[in-house]
Specification:
It comes from Marinomonas gallaica. Keywords: Signal. One of its GO terms (biological process) is peptide transport. This protein is an alpha+beta fold. The chain has 3 domains: 177 residues, D-Maltodextrin-Binding Protein, domain 2 (3-Layer(aba) Sandwich), CATH 3.40.190.10; 105 residues, Dipeptide-binding Protein, domain 1 (Alpha-Beta Complex), CATH 3.90.76.10; 206 residues, Dipeptide-binding Protein, domain 3, CATH 3.10.105. Helices cover 28% and strands 22% of the residues. It has 15 helices and 19 strands. The strands form 4 sheets. Strands 1, 8, 9, 10, 11, 12, 13, 14, 15, 16 and 17 form an 11-stranded mixed β-sheet that branches. The chain has a 4-stranded antiparallel β-sheet with strand order 4-5-7-6, with helices on one face. A two-stranded antiparallel ribbon has the order 2-3. Strand 6 and strand 7 form a beta hairpin. The longest helix is centred in the C-terminal third of the chain and has 17 residues. It is globular. It starts with 8 loop residues before the first helix and ends with a helix.
């Protein structure tokens, strides 16, 4: 395997952060020339977040495997949010609790092994037995068994109308048997089934993809891709400007004005910037104090100043990416009256990986101070702060949260974040009426009645003031002049696929 020279991301980040007018353009040109010579035809990608769990599919790292077209699931969601075939070509609900999936013929994994029922059973059973479970399986009990060599039966303990949609989650990616070690470690290196094979993962700095010529579908046009993880937003934007990267995730709003407008694309996201308040302990255990925070927030000021109007003011948890939500939303009845803070001290926390969030924290801290709170801030990298947030160490936590990331349906997100047993319940919220509303919505098939039930659950959650939605984000995706076929996916599941490629110099010139 060819080993590529690492891109000078750290040097680039430091130089751009400290930029004072003495930038050496000749050095930058030399860096670009060296990169071009080493990576002809390869796609260079700058990702926002580094892997948190060595790319195990049972974590959020699974979305990287999906975005790179390395790993595949049994079924996927099309642009309209309906089921489409992937590793399974047919599916049917045999009984209220049993679904049968027919597997695609001729699929091989990157290690040369063949897709069959036993491989699928192993992958899905591992996910159901994991601790913690993948988020998509919160509150769900599934059993999986082979139905001959080329089909599997997936059964739920109770009727689950969205069972098939759950299986579209990248966290339920099917990997070869070789990916699963006896000690519980799962490695996707040389174990996926997509058009690109992950050949190398270098810690949290980079990953290497090569074209998989044995792919069951259309072969990749590009020979491979070189992935670099670049949490620094200025460095990512600089990489696009200097040609070091062909595709850049999440360009900071502040950097957009200094980039060629033809190179940036706003993608409306089902992602809400929400302030989670600790409803279980401390100052925010008092509903009246949470109401005081609700009344103190000036959303427009944050949208106008931090996001430079490249975001939408939030009226609820679900934003413009789900057009039906606004039509069905009802005002919260009898909202709690706010208390007077009288200088009480609270800790407001967030993370640095999303460039805008620390600035959001600054504005929020000032707004809360003006309302009478004394505010302490705690801002760190996400990997360093996540465990403290999940264990309820903060009074308030700012989170940029995808609302339909997993199944294409917001119930999974709402259960994960707001149910008593939710695995991502930063607000430490536990109210029986919320659990009941979520259970009622989850029992309904996709359609208008389910949507109404979802909005009823949202209304009850908003009434708790434990989660205060501030804005709905639009991600700014960067694409160089020489790349074609990049996917602009609101669900953040796809980025490159077999049709993504780098034009040669002749094509670029034209």
């Amino acid at each position: 395997m060819r080993h590529l020279k690492p891109w000078p991301w750290m040097a680039l980040a430091l130089s751009m952060t400290a930029l004072t007018g003495c930038f050496d353009a000749s050095d930058e040109s030399q860096q670009k020339a060296t990169a071009d010579a080493d990576t002809k035809g390869r796609i260079s990608v700058a990702m926002l977040l580094p892997p948190r769990s060595a790319l195990t599919p049972l974590s959020d790292d699974a979305f990287k495997l999906s975005r790179w077209s390395v790993g595949e699931t049994l079924v996927v969601l099309n642009d309209e949010g309906n089921l489409a075939p992937a590793l399974a070509t047919q599916w049917e609900q045999v009984t209220p609790t049993d679904w049968r999936f027919t597997l695609r013929d001729g699929v091989t994994f990157h290690d040369g092994s063949v897709l069959d029922a036993d491989v699928v059973v192993n992958a899905l059973r591992t996910a159901t037995l994991a601790t913690p479970k993948p988020r998509i399986l919160d509150g769900v009990s599934l059993t999986i068994r082979a139905d001959g060599d080329h089909a599997v039966m997936v059964s739920s303990e109770i009727a689950d109308p969205l069972l098939a949609q759950r299986l579209t989650s990248p966290q339920l990616t099917i990997l070869a048997q070789s990916a699963y070690a006896d000690n519980g470690v799962i490695s996707p290196v040389n174990a996926g089934s997509g058009p690109f094979v992950l050949t190398q993962l270098t810690g949290t700095s980079s990953a290497t993809l090569e074209r998989y010529d044995g792919y069951w579908g259309q072969k990749a046009r590009a020979p491979g891709a070189d992935i670099s993880f670049v949490p620094d937003g200025i460095a990512r934007a600089s990489a696009l400007r200097t040609g070091l990267a062909d595709i850049v995730e999440a360009i900071p709003v502040s950097q957009a004005p200094v980039i060629d407008s033809q190179r940036i694309h706003e993608v409306p996201m089902p992602r809400t910037n929400t302030l989670y308040l600790n409803a279980d302990r401390g100052v925010m255990k008092d509903p009246a104090m949470r109401a005081a925070v609700r009344e103190a927030i000036n959303r427009k000021q944050i949208v106008d100043n931090v996001y430079e109007k490249r975001a939408d003011i939030a009226e609820g948890l679900l934003g413009p990416a789900l057009p039906w939500a606004a039509k069905l939303r009802q005002p919260v009845a009898n909202p709690t009256a706010p208390a007077k803070p009288n200088g009480v001290t609270i800790t407001l926390a967030t993370f640095t990986d999303r460039t805008e969030l620390p600035e959001v924290a600054v504005y929020l801290a000032q707004q809360l101070t003006d309302a009478g709170f004394t505010v302490k801030q705690d801002v760190r990298e996400y990997s360093q702060i996540e465990s403290d947030a999940l264990s309820g160490q903060f009074d308030a936590f700012i989170l940029s949260r995808a609302t339909v990331l997993d199944s294409g349906d917001p119930i999974a997100y709402m259960y994960s974040d707001f149910a008593c047993a939710g695995s991502f319940n930063i607000a430490q919220l536990c109210q029986p009426e919320i659990d009941k509303a979520l259970e009622e919505a989850a029992a309904l098939p996709a359609g208008p009645e389910r949507q109404k039930a979802i909005m009823k659950a949202e209304n009850i959650i908003l009434a708790s003031d434990a989660a205060i939605p501030m804005l709905h984000e639009r991600v700014i995706q960067g694409e160089s002049a020489r790349v074609r076929g990049v996917i602009r996916d609101p669900r953040e599941r796809l980025l490159i696929d077999a049709n993504t490629y780098i034009m040669d110099d002749t094509e670029v010139a034209q």
